[in-house]
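hey so i finaly got around to running the thing on Secreted protein from Solihabitans fulvus. pasting the sequence first so u can double check i didnt mess up the copy paste, my clipboard has been acting weird all day
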Amino acid sequence: MRLNGRSIAVTLAAVGLAGGLVGCSAAAEAKDKASVCVDALKLGGFTPDLSDPAKSVEDAHRKAEELGKLADQAGDTTLRDALKGMAQKLTSVKVSDFDPQSVQNWVNSKVSDLDTLRKACS
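ok and heres what it spat out for the 3d tokens, dont ask me to read them lol
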């Protein structure tokens, strides 16, 4: 089989296009992870209103539900696990977690969760 210049050009163009599509797929996946991370950081930035602990618990449970949905969208396993862990902790929040004696423990746990999320997003 004899190849002419046109056959070679078409073949090279097809290879280049395939490589470009693979690159686009990787870029889209990275964008999805970045998008999930941005949304997760917004949700993870939840700050309770210590003057209304009952409302803060409701807000925490709502954020937990949103984090759970976001976890389901995450393609990256480490990121998904971090989001599910954060969601689980927010689901288990109770009014007593926001009283003056306990709030520091909650804050420390939140900082740890955000650090885990930061690592999963890098």
